[in-house]
Every structure is written in C-alpha cells, then in structure tokens.
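job 3f2a | input accepted
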Amino acid sequence: MNYRHAFHAGNFADLVKHAALLEVLARMTGKAPPLTIVDTHAGAGLYDLAGGEAQRSGEAEAGVGRLLAAKDAPAPLAALAKAVREANKGEGVRYYPGSPWLIARVLRARDRYLAFELHTEEHGALSRTLRGKPGVETRCADGFAAAPGAVPANGPAFVLIDPPFERADDYGRIVQAVRAVLSRNRQAVLMIWLPLKDLATFDGFLRDLEDAAGRAPVLVAEARLRPLSDPMRMNGCALAVVRPPSGLHAPLEATCGWVAERLGESGAAARIWTAS
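job 3f2a | predicted structure (276 res):
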C-alpha cells in the first residue's frame, strides 16, 4: 500500500468526516452505556502539517487552515476547530488530529476503542500517538476482515470505515464488512467515508450498501466541491451513516453546506438524504 494520509490531512474531506465523527461520538457517549468503537483504517492518528507531504499538497491550508481563520463556521466545524487547537496546545497549527486522536479524546473510562491499521509504518506511528490512552488498543491488521469479530454481539457499537480507496475492491469490501457487522450486532452504528468522483460509482455503491443494511436506515451526506464530471478527480466526498443517531441530519447539513459553499468551486453543492 502506497497511500499516505499525510498528503491529505486536514483537507476539506477531513473536515466533513471529523466534524461528523465528533457529532456521532457526542450522541453515543455522554450518559449512554459503555461503547465499543472500531476503526478499520486508523492511519497514523496525528499528522505533522509542517512535514514534506502536507506542504507538497497544500490541502491542509485550503481546508483546516481556512476553517481556523473563519468566523462563521457552524457548530460542528467549530467543535472540530477547538479539537485541532487542543492538539496543538494553543501554539499555532502544526498538527492535525486524525480519527484516532479525536476518538481517544472523548473516550470514557468504560468505553473501548480498537484501531486497526494494516500499514506497518503507519501502525507504528499510531501506536506512539495513542500510547498510554486507557481503553485503547491498536492492531496491525486488515480492518475489513477484523472489524466484525471486534464488535460485541450485544450492546452499543460504532464502526468507522475510512479506507484509502487504492484498490478496486474497496467498495465491495465495505459492503461485506457492513453486512458482517450487522449480522453480529443489529444495533451497531456504522459511518463510511467515500470520495465523490463520478455518479455511477457512487450510486452503485449506495444500492449495494442499502441491500447490506437491510431495514436499517442509511443517512447520506454529500459535499460536492464541483460537478461530478471528471472521474479522475476527487470532486467531493460523502458519508453514509447506517443507523444514524437521532439528530444527526441537521449538523451534517450545516457541515456539508459550509464546506461546499466556502471551499468549493462553481457548481458546488451539498445534499443530505435518507437512502432507506
């Protein structure tokens, strides 16, 4: 695997994904029962925006850089901006926190977090980032294959699926993982991040996902930075949340709307809808 998220850390898609992640976690923690969280593609956990990869792409400057400079960010993105500042201890913005850092930040003593990362070097960085965090376990393993067995048969569970989409079978493996997780625990909540390149690929995946979800509702949130006319570019991103917690629609709408309007090009748009 050649993918390195450091090139893309803090970009517009991370803003959508991580603002939504914080919203889901807020609804599934608090006074709720103990929660098991499974992260199938955890990455390094924390990214140096002063590193060569981030500097070369410039995506962080166009994403989190503009968010932190904004005065009108909606509440979900403002919460993410606060977390980013915490990750930097108030000393500028050198580091961008990935999903593992954000999850560990809100983990309660009674919760459990399993972070899978297949790439050896990335897993090493992940282990260092999360070292000493209570309730946290990292595993250098295939998250697609491991996630169903990591989810408890009963009780609250949340699975984050965010693959690099380097392989043609990633879409199919997502569907298989969703089906397997729900077969083990029908109450599990799953959040899937997707790149938006062309409409045919996206629509085909959603049809397969609806079939795997069965009667479980699927909330879909899209942030299109430009029309889906060039399948060789990432024209936007989407989230599909299976069994979304109550009240998630409005914050996702606010997040995607702000990202599309403030960071998008001509033809940018946001759309939030229920697939089943």
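job 3f2a | Residues 12-28 form the longest helix (17 residues).
job 3f2a | closed
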